[in-house]
Structures are given as structure tokens and as C-alpha cells.
């Protein structure tokens, strides 16, 4: 066999092998994350309303852990696990490294946040565990520097695919999350392998059942329907921008007044969440809010539920608590779609699904992954509408996003006067100046 073919099959085999290992470990740890979150959120917190009053003290514990155990020097660079998904993105770009302790720390912080009623999701913990596992695999097998970044993407894919039961989406999300305007297709094989293995380990091996959201009716294809979908998608993209700006604004403000003391930030953030909960008079917007999210597909929900969840989540994560932002964005988009159903002649479940996908797309800046998520989550229904919705949301959300470390390789459009190879964080800073 010629040398070039030997080299090809050697690299291919290596990627399949390492991707499988990452998928097996991340699939198992993600199942632990999902099952534990369900237990803490449903079986413990919902039956004990008084636990919300312990949230500020839970914030102190989280802050203490991150301040004392979350900072690691690797290759003469400070890697702070409190940077969460931004640290994982920076490691994909080779700027920093993901410490192996990041996964256990983020799981611990997520469990405390969920137990005491912080408004958060789960994919953030799964993605960070994926990065942590990939970093451990890189070190154990002494992977070269170039392939290290590819395997970090594989860890992201495994975490996302396993967390949402969407292996195809997970494969693309791992490549699309780190940068706007560029996909590293060389990472497709390990990302695909790790995402599918992670998904099947979570579901087939461990038997986890993911939530299901059903679209009851899809409008017939027409120009009027497409115009309505475009209008709705613009609104959903703008609500995602509002969330991102508020969440980052709270983070910057809380870091400034607390002088980056994570314990103080989280304590006062917890106090604010307790006050907001008492003002609302229920705990519908604490935790993940899956009950109301599912309800938004079937019957009317409170008209301002989307705004309440937006504020609760922005305060929770902006003040230093831990968790994901995908499910809160799902909630915000779906409940907003439910509310808009009163004014727009489109089926309720379809509008809720459209809001779920479009809000996530606008916040994550991952249009391909968002479209694939719609296909996997809703069994391919309304694919024409979801394709348009993802493109519109991606364009109209501008250069904002959940993760400031995302690099802009290409601006979304020439309509935006944005320099190449900048991060979202740097673009935001230049706008303020």
C-alpha cells in the first residue's frame, strides 16, 4: 500500500479511535449531569420552595471554588475556568488550554445553581466537560498541537449531541461554535464520531429520555407565510440580542463593583434572584423551566414569561452562577412565540418552535447547527421555514452573541462594517469607544 494511503488511514483511524473515547466518556458524564439535574430540580427543589433562600450562600460556595481552584497556569498562561465556554473557544483557537479540572468544577457549580433555583441550562456544563475530557485525552495520548484543537471541537460536539439528543447538530455545533464565517471541515470525522457515540451512550447505554417538543400544525407554503416567518424571525433575533447584551452588561457591572470577587458577585446576584422570585410570586422562572417550555407548545402561557425568564437568566449567569444558556434561550424564544400567536395568524406550536430555534440561532451564531437542531428536534417538519428563520435570525442579530470569544473570520454581511479576525468582545469594545 502506498505511503500516502497508509498515512490517510492512520490519521482516520486515530480520529475515529480518539473521537470514540471522547464520546464514551462525555456521553457517560453527560448522562450523570442530566439525571442529577433532573433529580435536584424536580425531586428536590420543586418540593422544597424554601431552598431558593439559600441561593446567595450557594453563590458564595461557587465563587470560593472558582477563585481557589478554578485558575490554572498552563504553558505560562492563566486559564480561568470561570470563563466557561469562552475558555473552551479560546482553546480551539490555540490561545489557552482547558484544564482537566474544568469539567468537575462546572458540574459542581451547575448542581448548586439548579438545587437552589438559579435560572440556567445544562449544555454549558456538558460542553465544558467535553472540553475537559478532550484535554485529558490530548495529554494522555500526547496528541500533536494541530490535532489538539480538533479534538477540543470533538469534545464540544460530544457534549452538545449528548445533552440534547441531537448527534447531527452536535457534530456541526462543535465546528461552528468557535468562529463566525469559517468551518474547519477537517474536524468533521472526529466531531461526528464523538457526537454520535456520546448520544448513543447517553440514550442507548444509560437509557436517558430527552424531552420532546411536538409541532401540531405547519402552515402551508405561501408567500404570506414566509413573510410572517421572516418578520417573526427578526423579532426573535432581536430578543436574543437583548438577552446577550443584558447578560454581559450585568457580568461587566458585577465584576466592576465587586472588583472581580466571584463570591461577592454571586452572593448579591443570588439575593437579587430571591427578590425577583418573591416579586413574581412563583418559581416558574427558576431552574430550567422545562414545564412552561413544554406548555408553550400546547396552551397559552403568561404573556410576559419570555421577559421574566430573560431577566432571571441574565442575572443568574451574569452574576457568576453556572450553567448553560441554550435552554433559557429555548424558553425565551418559545414563550415569546406563544405570546405572538395572539397577534399573528400562525399555529401556536409552530410559532413556539420557530421562536425556540431562531432565538438560539441569534444568540449562538450557529445557523447551520440551529437548522439541523430544528430538523432533529421536530422530525423535519417545516424545514423550509426553519431554514429561512435561521438565516434571518443569524443576519439580524448582528455581531453579538453568547460567547464574546467567538472569532469573526468573515462579517455576516458587507452591511456590517466589521474588521476580519476580531472577536465579538473586541467589536463590542470598539463600538462603546
How would you summarize this macromolecular structure in one to three sentences?
The chain has 433 residues and is mainly alpha-helical. The chain has 17 helices and 5 strands.
Overall structural domain count:
2
Can you write the helix and strand succession as a string? HHEEHHHHHEHHHHHHHHHEEH
Q: Note the total helix count.
A: 17
Mean pLDDT across the residues is 93
Low-confidence stretches: none
Looking at the structure, the CATH topology of the largest domain is Clc chloride channel
Q: What is the strand tally? A: 5
Distance between the termini: 60 Å
CATH superfamily of the largest domain: Clc chloride channel
Q: Can you tell me the CATH architecture of the largest domain?
A: Orthogonal Bundle
Amino acid at each position: 500500500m502506498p505511503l500516502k494511503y497508509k498515512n490517510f488511514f492512520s490519521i482516520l483511524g486515530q480520529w475515529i479511535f480518539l473521537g470514540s473515547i471522547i464520546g464514551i466518556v462525555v456521553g457517560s458524564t453527560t448522562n450523570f449531569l442530566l439525571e442529577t439535574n433532573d433529580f435536584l430540580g424536580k425531586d428536590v427543589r420543586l418540593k422544597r420552595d424554601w431552598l431558593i433562600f439559600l441561593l446567595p450562600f450557594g453563590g458564595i460556595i461557587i465563587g470560593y471554588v472558582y477563585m481557589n481552584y478554578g485558575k490554572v497556569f498552563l504553558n505560562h498562561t492563566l486559564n480561568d475556568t470561570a470563563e466557561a465556554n469562552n475558555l473552551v473557544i479560546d482553546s480551539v483557537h490555540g490561545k489557552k488550554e482547558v484544564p482537566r479540572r474544568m469539567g468537575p468544577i462546572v458540574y459542581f457549580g451547575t448542581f448548586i445553581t439548579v438545587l437552589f433555583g438559579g435560572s440556567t441550562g445544562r449544555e454549558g456544563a456538558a460542553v465544558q466537560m467535553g472540553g475537559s475530557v478532550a484535554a485529558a485525552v490530548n495529554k494522555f495520548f500526547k496528541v500533536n498541537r494541530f490535532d489538539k484543537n480538533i479534538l477540543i471541537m470533538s469534545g464540544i460536539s460530544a457534549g452538545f449531541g449528548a445533552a440534547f439528543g441531537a448527534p447531527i447538530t452536535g457534530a456541526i455545533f462543535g465546528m461552528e461554535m468557535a468562529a463566525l464565517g469559517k468551518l474547519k471541515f477537517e474536524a468533521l470525522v472526529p466531531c461526528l464520531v464523538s457526537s454520535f457515540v456520546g448520544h448513543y451512550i447517553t440514550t442507548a447505554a444509560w437509557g436517558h429520555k430527552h424531552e420532546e417538543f411536538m409541532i401540531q400544525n405547519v402552515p402551508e407554503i405561501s408567500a404570506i407565510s414566509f413573510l410572517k416567518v421572516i418578520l417573526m424571525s427578526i423579532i426573535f433575533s432581536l430578543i436574543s440580542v437583548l438577552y446577550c447584551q443584558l447578560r454581559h452588561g450585568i457580568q461587566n457591572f458585577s465584576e466592576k463593583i465587586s472588583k472581580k470577587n466571584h463570591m461577592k458577585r454571586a452572593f448579591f446576584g443570588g439575593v437579587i434572584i430571591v427578590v425577583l422570585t418573591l416579586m413574581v410570586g412563583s418559581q416558574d422562572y427558576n431552574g430550567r423551566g422545562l414545564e412552561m417550555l413544554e406548555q408553550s407548545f400546547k396552551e397559552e402561557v403568561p404573556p410576559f414569561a419570555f421577559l421574566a425568564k430573560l431577566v432571571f437568566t441574565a442575572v443568574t449567569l451574569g452574576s457568576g452562577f453556572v450553567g448553560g444558556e441554550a435552554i433559557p434561550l429555548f424558553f425565551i424564544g418559545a414563550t415569546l412565540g406563544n405570546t405572538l400567536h395572539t397577534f399573528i395568524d400562525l399555529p401556536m406550536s409552530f410559532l413556539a418552535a420557530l421562536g425556540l430555534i431562531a432565538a438560539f440561532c441569534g444568540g449562538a451564531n450557529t445557523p447551520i447547527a440551529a437548522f439541523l437542531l430544528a430538523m432533529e428536534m421536530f422530525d423535519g417538519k417545516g424545514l423550509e421555514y426553519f431554514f429561512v428563520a435561521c438565516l434571518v435570525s443569524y443576519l439580524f442579530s448582528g455581531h453579538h452573541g453568547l460567547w464574546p470569544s467567538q472569532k469573526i473570520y468573515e462579517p455576516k454581511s458587507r452591511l456590517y462594517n466589521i474588521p476580519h479576525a476580531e472577536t465579538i468582545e473586541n467589536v463590542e469594545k470598539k463600538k462603546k469607544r
